[in-house]
Amino acid sequence: MQTTFPRLLLKHAAERPDAPAMREKEYGIWQAHSWAGMAALVEHIAYGLHQLGLQRGEHMVVIGANRPRLYATMLAAQSLGAIPIPLYQDAVATECVFPITNADVRFAFAEDQEQVDKLLEIRDRCPDLAHLVYDDPRGLRNYAEPGLMSLDALIESGQALAASQPAFLRAEIDKTSPNDVAAMFFTSGTTGNPKGVVHTHNTLLDRARAGAEFDKLTASEEVLAYLPPAWIGQNIFSYAQWLACGYVVNCPEDASTVTIDLKEIGPTYYFAPPRVFEGLLTSVMIRMEDASRAKRGMFNFFMKVAKRVGPDRMNGQALGLADTLLYRLGDLLVYGPLRNNLGFSRVRVAYTAGEAIGPDLFTFYRSIGINLKQLYGSTETAVFVCLQPDDQARADTVGVPIQGVQIKVAENGEILVKSAGLLKEYYKNPAATAEVLDASGWYHTSDAGFIDARGHLKIIDRVKDVGRIKGGEHDGALFAPKYVENKLKFFPHIKEVVAYGDGREKVCVFINIDFNAVGNWAERHNLPYAGYTDLAQKPEVYQLVRECVEKVNADLSADALLAGSQVSRFLVLHKELDADDGELTRTNKVRRGFIAEKYQPLIEALYGGKTEQFIETVVKFEDGRSGSVSATLKISEAKTFAPVKAAA
Length: 648
What we know:
With 648 residues, the chain is an alpha/beta fold.
């Protein structure tokens, strides 16, 4: 049955008023908010916003971390027929200008002083921005900006109005149709200004329910909301599915406490991009390197057992008696304690999405008994397009089309999607809308892939990024940069990779080391260093990275399709790629074209046969100041391998 977000809130509040809807950690203590409490909070905020003049169809920016009061503000805006727009809380002030001006925003909710300062900084460029409501009052006592008020004051005024007009809000909620616009999400803007993706209540809730039915989600699930609410992945899991299923959403105290909070909550339903799973595995490997020889030996032995039989066990295949007993012993001594240490002891379903995950990384988690699966979707499809059944999770696919989804592959290999979850439009951008939504209702994903014999979708790369090697011994060979990058990023010492090779005779890459992992390695090997730039250029670090690159090359040589994508030369960058410097999107996707322009001298050096290259780069610091980092970067060769011919 079609409905809206505010109606679902009222339904939960009526049917189980005292059940916990959300929890937040404050001063080290988890505080619960019941469904009835959330409904009352939403009501008072909505009345307060109405009193300030928020109109049906208007946009309201919401910027901050996951908090019950942030979600309540979004629900309050939707209750009045207005449209919340979550923005990334780590975005710099200038990045907020386009969304606010493009959507004619008059109202903004800001979590704390940092976000208020950001909005005040750009207020002269956002002339319509009249009302700023903040939640956390710390540091804001002496602010006297026009239109600035605390959420507590707004709630207080809303309570008074609710007492005098008790029927008003319910009437406003009843006016809203499931096909009315519910929210707008801005894309990451990898090539120019971001686009506002318009979604209705129905598009978001249809996909939320389809995903819930696929994985048999219930009101008893526990979810940890720690990723930016502006990312539609987090928004679907902790907002749309929260209201569709009625489970509990838990908000950590701070980004720095997420790993502790994960262990305390023990979520049953978990979602993270590959980068998070990479970070968790890196922390495990660092700890194991510091463990005693006996513990390392036990860990390595049972991990070999897990890698050999764990995935088959997760996929429901029968194991022999010896393997069953060995795995049970490993679960007692290694896998169980490891899941508990990661905070995954209760996870029933875990998903990764946003970009492809390395096959070895994927296998690691499934081998120790974590039901990690991949999904395929995007902001424009309200996330859920393809999901992996529990017994069919594979590293090289993103699952099968779920209920209500049709998929076809265009002649150029592009994946086309049709479902009830497709965007209504790109806001104020009919040309861009027409590019992705054709007259027959098919959404053009820009991803290249195919449906395999088992009905699973395989994604190769972005259509525009899939290229060909030109010249040399691999002339005409397929080049899939994302595939190469992900294989390298499995190694705990490598954090980020940018691969180039389209139209060239060989593949060359930029590499970011993982400073924590390599720093730990350097300390154990008595290798002194003075910071990231110094550590990155150590000959010993280059040897460490070269070994990783050559292992990937050996793997690629066994793939007839991608043997030409082996890395011939590489360098380790002198700085970490950063969203504040424009090198990554806010969802941490590499902006390959921007990086190529910014570091053109390095690309020329890689392909020109040089052994080193000086580079000076402008960087932005956290306090807003600019500076520069310079270094002479070494350029290294990597061994490549002849393609392995299939047996006759």
